[in-house]
Design a protein that fits this description.
single chain; 158 residues; alpha+beta; four-stranded antiparallel β-sheet; globular
């Protein structure tokens, strides 16, 4: 397994992040594609938006400040996106992450969660809530692997 680290979104990752976004479209995962599509249209503005979110500046009323980090390997490929919030969301907790389809089922989920918990502690967040959909078996495995405590199960009605 390649060495993985969390880093702020940077111009040097632009092409890799484009591939990351397009991988969701190729897999038919349009919700993630739509989430990141703005970066394809205007990468510089997208980075500025992430910085504002991290500072809690100009947020919509239903949003909280969140620091966004890209999970990057030692070849500077973006494997995933991690979001850390000091204020937990009901469906999202303090830490949210997603992993590109090509990097799933390879053990990266638990590694990225460990790195996110370290980063959260650096941000003075001592306990973190991580949520996942009831049917998200991969996330459940990642949480078990890092020995996370199960508080309760939520079923989000759509």
């Amino acid at each position: 397994m390649a060495k993985i680290f969390l880093d702020k979104a940077k111009a040097e990752y632009k092409q890799s992040f484009y591939k990351y976004i397009e991988s969701y479209l190729a897999e038919g995962e349009t919700s993630y594609y739509d989430k990141y599509k703005m970066a394809l249209d205007n990468f510089h503005e997208y980075i500025k938006l992430l910085e504002k979110e991290g500072q809690g500046t100009d947020l919509p009323k239903d949003r909280v400040a969140q620091a966004t980090f890209w999970s990057v390997d030692d070849n500077f490929h973006v494997l995933g996106v991690t979001r850390i919030r000091k204020q937990a969301l009901e469906f999202g907790g303090n830490i949210g992450y997603d992993i590109a389809p090509a990097y799933r089922k390879k053990g990266y989920g638990s590694l990225i969660l460990k790195l996110a918990l370290i980063k959260a502690r650096e941000m003075n967040l001592q306990k973190a809530i991580v949520t996942c959909e009831v049917d998200n078996i991969a996330s459940k495995k990642s949480l078990r692997k890092i020995k996370a405590s199960l508080l309760e199960v939520y079923i989000q009605r759509k």
